[in-house]
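Ticket 4471: requesting a sanity check on a complex prediction with phosphoenolpyruvate. Repro inputs:
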Amino acid sequence: MKSLIVANWKCNPTSLAEAKRLFNSVEKGVKDFKNVEVVICPPFPYLPMVGMASRSGVKLGGQDVFWEEKGAFTGEVSPKMLKDFECKYVIIGHSERRRNFKETDEMVNKKLKAALKIGLRPILCIEKMSQIKKGIKGFIKKDFKKIVFAYEPVWAIGTGKPCSIEKAKKMNSLFRKIMNKNVLLYGGSVNSQNARDFIKKAKFQGFLIGGASLNPQEFIKIVKNISKD
Ligand code: PEP
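Returned structure tokens:
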């Protein structure tokens, strides 16, 4: 099975020119690694520029989405808008959105439903079991199966202090009790040194990567390290 590596650029880089450079380097650098699916989630305004990604092996994703299709919702972006810009994935419920924008599990639930309805693959960020249970409330099995989960301990995000492999492995088995065959990613200070252990020892199927995704050499190295058997 292919590993899934998702780059979350967050509110970076600061110019379109840099975004193009970053995207092109990554696209070129990962093209020969066959058993890894690479997804880049840039800020919304950069989506059209990297939209030609569909021509390469790299896929696109949104960093967030709104649950309504249209209307008087200033600042929001609908699932169809993301779809039109060739997004295949969308990150939902990132801890930065929960913390800084007061996103609740109920909002996350609506976003998940709206994304699935239009055919986007949601990447649901979670830290604890209750976030999964509330996030997927009312879901039928068929839709639940399509959700990619990302275990992201908040204290490991952007701190340079990743979760220990032992704890990550424990959390993986815990989530697996209700997840069945869903893809489960790890996120939190992943780098080229620790990536392989999260896959080989802690049994994750890929990563959600923030900081290291802005450094093309490091990001490509992560993809390379996990693509070897
Ligand atoms: C993230 O923001 O989802 C994340 C995992 O960030 P970092 O890789 O920088 O810890």
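Notes from triage: Strands lie at 3-8, 36-41, 59-62, 87-92, 121-126, 148-151, 184-187, 206-209. Leaving this open until the requester confirms.
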